[in-house]
Specification:
This protein has six helices and five strands; from the N terminus they run βαβαβαβααβα. The chain is α/β, with parallel strands linked by helices. The chain has one domain: P-loop containing nucleotide triphosphate hydrolases (Rossmann fold), CATH 3.40.50. The chain has a five-stranded parallel sheet, sandwiched between helices.
Length: 168
């Protein structure tokens, strides 16, 4: 019997994953939110084979903890997740026996993404190199086994409501 829903929210940097996930957490009953970036917030930020393994273990541990906790019926997780292998690896170590997974990729036009990233850069939230990296990642989401939600012209709340409807 399915008793929980795990929402995986992917998309390039700056697309609005964290904002959407925060809204989704508020509209879903008995929900908890985990941003994958919280599991790898280091200075200096180092991408090595060891740190990649570590962050996946951190994410899997926390998601399994939320899945196993009776207080939560809805678990919202967001992270860049630009390759199917990342999604598959995360899911491979989760106890999904009573959990349905709703896997979403947030997408937009390159113009919309540029505008969002530029806003983040100008506010000091992101560094200048985020623009090209995010734009390079954008087309990768079309290849994933996910529900694509176009965020062009939509608020974070509107996108969150669209995602919440996927459960019905």
């Amino acid at each position: 019997m399915i008793t929980k829903t795990l929402y995986l929210i992917g998309g390039p940097m700056g697309i609005g994953k964290t904002s959407v996930s925060n809204h989704l957490k508020k509209i879903l009953p008995d929900s908890v939110f985990l941003d994958g970036d919280w599991c790898w917030d280091a200075h200096p930020f180092k991408v090595t084979e060891e740190t990649k393994v570590m962050v996946l273990k951190n994410i899997q541990f926390l998601l399994n903890s939320f899945i196993g906790c009776s207080a939560y019926k809805n678990i919202v997780f967001c992270w860049v997740m630009h390759m199917q292998e990342i999604i598959d690896d995360i899911l491979s170590k989760l106890d999904l026996s009573r959990c349905r997974v709703i896997n979403v990729s947030l997408i937009s036009s390159a113009e919309t993404l540029r505008g969002r990233i530029w806003k983040d850069i100008s506010e000091g939230v992101r560094s200048g190199d985020a623009m090209q990296k995010s734009l390079n990642y954008l087309p990768l989401y079309g290849r994933l086994d996910t529900v694509k939600i176009d965020t062009d012209g939509k608020t974070a709340d509107e996108v969150a409501k669209e995602i919440a409807q996927l459960a019905y």
